Request: fold
Amino acid sequence: MATEQIFVNACVVTMNDALPSAQAFAVRGDRFAAVGSNQELQGWADRESRVVDLGGRTVVPGFIESHSHPSLYALTLLQADCRTPPCRTVVEVKERVKAMAGTLGVGRWVRGWGYDDTLIAERRHLNRADLDDAAPANPVLVSHVSGHLAYANSLALAIAGIGSGTPQPAGGEIQRDERGVPTGLLKEHAAQELVLEHIPPYSTPELKGVLGRTMSVYHQAGITSSHDAAVGYFREGRQVFQAYGELEEEGRLELRIYLNVVEELYRDLQDRGTDTRFGSGRLRLGCVKLFQDGSIQALTAALEEPYQNAPGRRGDLVHPQDALDELVERYHSRGIQVAIHANGDRAIESTLQALERAQRLHPRDDARHLIIHCQLASRDQIRRMKRLGVIPSFFVNHVYYWGDRHVALFLGPERAARIDPLGAAVQEELIFTLHSDLPVTPVDPLFSMHCAVNRRTRGGMVLGPEERISPVEALRAYTVHGAYCSFEENAKGSIEVGKAADFVVVSENPLRVPPERIREIRVLRTVLGGRTVYEACHED
Ligand SMILES: [Zn+2]
Reply:
């Protein structure tokens, strides 16, 4: 018989509209079996049940991170950390690359991640000479914090055969100096791929090891489900599949994973006859991932009006309109969900046109296509999403991490104030989710909710106060709406009889603390399918 646990004396925020709050609940096996008052649950306990007194603590549903990259983050654990912090100067970045080259040995590929040209003291991109200096005898590739740019050294460029005469790849750019020599900066995936295809992929055992460490990071943040949002973006797509599959078989997959697979890999899987409809409570093949632009801070998001700090530029669409139309139609017409990365208003416009066209040609009731990041959506675009049943996932952490720079550098005050227009989305009654995009920003749902509710930048400014939302709307985005966007609203996302027993015990109630203190709330315990996967050492 399934073991029964009864949790009593709690302040339960169920996120179930039929019973919004409760004091106690029972878990049988991996599901909620009863939810109610302490008194009601007393009747449930018998000699076999384990009763846990939560001492008045708040319980919320397990958080659902609807756009992050656990497998990409896992890979960064095998790479040099070039973020700011910890690195303050280019010299410190070079030291980390040099140290990794020393550990790996001559000739081995050195990977780095997280470089940020707008935070490093020198305020510039890396170039091949920096990386040659750091590791002359190793090919080196360092990725930018956005993931949309990367820097290669001379050896890496030579191995990839990239020189003055190399044609520009479609959808990407090899940056060249005034003499036509590549500087080492590679823009967008198409250019990075020229180098990546020469790097031996990490092995499945390596990946399984670092995925284990990654899952702990998620548990500490109260997360019980996450999308793995671009499987196949780097070359380890197949190993990622394999690693997750093996972890699940071994009973060691301690996170519910919804795979978003980049289109090229998805098509390849279908061509090989792989069952692309597999799914269990822990591992599901979700949607096809497409990209229609880059990122604002890399100046590669496609905007209607030029960047403030680069007046001639407004970013490029990845696909011409007819190509995106065709791709979206291909999957929409087969009943498959698509997730399209679109940051800038011009990319969102192009994405909506493709989705509207597909829906017109092949009407579907409940396609739930996703627009990822969706940062510069206009009111009109939000209304069209609502009409189409499209779910945006907003990258609200941008307000904190890049908000000041969006005002001063990239967008200017007017456009910056309306990034991540959550207030407008709530007014239009649009279902949306929020995300961290780990490894782009740290994974921490309570912090993302804090950003959504307060919209305070790192510098302390409130950016677009009318776009702030209430704590309950923010929590909904991380729970019930997170479940909805992967068609799992009947299986998880709220504390409700029959649903997966995924929940988090937190130090304070996010709906009751003063809004400016939401980020101080700590995760004390994370429970996945009735099993505690994280417990803070000191509860008080
Ligand atoms: Zn992402």
